[in-house]
């Protein structure tokens, strides 16, 4: 197993995001209590405080999560740290292991 030189932010949707998503995507039929797959965002592996890491990345993450629901940016809320934390459970870690033998490919 190889260590990847990245940390991660894992975001999992909470009910307010689910409610917003249902309003903008008729196929989104999930609630916070459902087993919704979270999204992992790779970040710099070296950090000492969590809050600055979230501050640095939350707008890009909100953009990506909203884009997964609707491409129409007119429906996206203005990103704020308060909204981000109300919409997602956030976990951060500094160690990523690659369990695969094939090379990582980045787009």
Furnish the topology, listing elements before pairings.
Blueprint: E1 2-4, E2 7-13, H1 15-24, E3 39-43, H2 50-67, H3 81-87, E4 88-93, E5 96-98
Antiparallel strand pairs: 1-5, 2-3, 2-4
What does this structure look like?
- By secondary structure, this protein is α+β, with helices and mostly antiparallel strands.
- The protein has one domain.
- Helices cover 33% and strands 22% of the residues.
- It is built from 3 helices and 5 strands, in the order E-E-H-E-H-H-E-E.
- It has helices spanning 15-24, 50-67, 81-87; strands at residues 2-4, 7-13, 39-43, 88-93, 96-98.
- The strands form 2 sheets. Strands 3-2-4 form a 3-stranded antiparallel beta sheet. Strands 1-5 form a two-stranded antiparallel ribbon.
- The longest helix is centred in the middle third of the chain and has 18 residues, at 50-67.
- The protein is globular, with a radius of gyration of 15 Å.
- The two termini are 23 Å apart.
Question: Can you give keywords for this protein?
Answer:
107 residues, alpha+beta, 3-stranded antiparallel sheet, two-stranded antiparallel sheet, 5 strands, 33% helix
Summed up, what is this model?
This protein is of the alpha+beta class and 107 residues long. It contains three helices and five strands, in the order ββαβααββ. 33% of the residues lie in helices and 22% in strands.
CA-to-CA gap between the ends? 23 Å
Q: Number of DSSP strands? A: 5
Shape: globular
Annotation field: number of helices = 3
Helix content: 25-40%
Looking across the biggest beta sheet, what order are the strands in?
3-2-4
Proportion in β-strands: 15-25%
Could you tell me the radius of gyration in angstroms?
Answer: 15 Å
Uncertain runs are none
SS-based structural class? Answer: alpha+beta
Order of helices and strands: EEHEHHEE
Oligomer: single chain
Described by strand count, sense and barrel closure, the largest sheet is: 3 strands, antiparallel
Q: How confident is the prediction overall: mean pLDDT?
A: 93
Overall domain count: 1
């Amino acid at each position: 197993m190889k260590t990847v030189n990245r940390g991660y932010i894992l975001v999992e949707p909470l009910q307010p995001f689910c409610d917003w998503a249902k309003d903008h995507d008729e196929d989104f039929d999930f609630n916070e209590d459902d087993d919704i797959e979270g999204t992992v965002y790779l970040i710099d592996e070296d950090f000492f405080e969590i809050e600055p890491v979230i501050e640095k990345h939350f707008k890009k993450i909100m953009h990506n999560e909203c884009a997964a629901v609707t491409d129409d940016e007119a429906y996206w809320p203005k990103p704020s740290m308060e909204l981000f934390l109300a919409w997602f459970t956030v976990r951060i870690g500094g160690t990523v292991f690659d369990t695969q033998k094939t090379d990582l490919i980045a787009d």
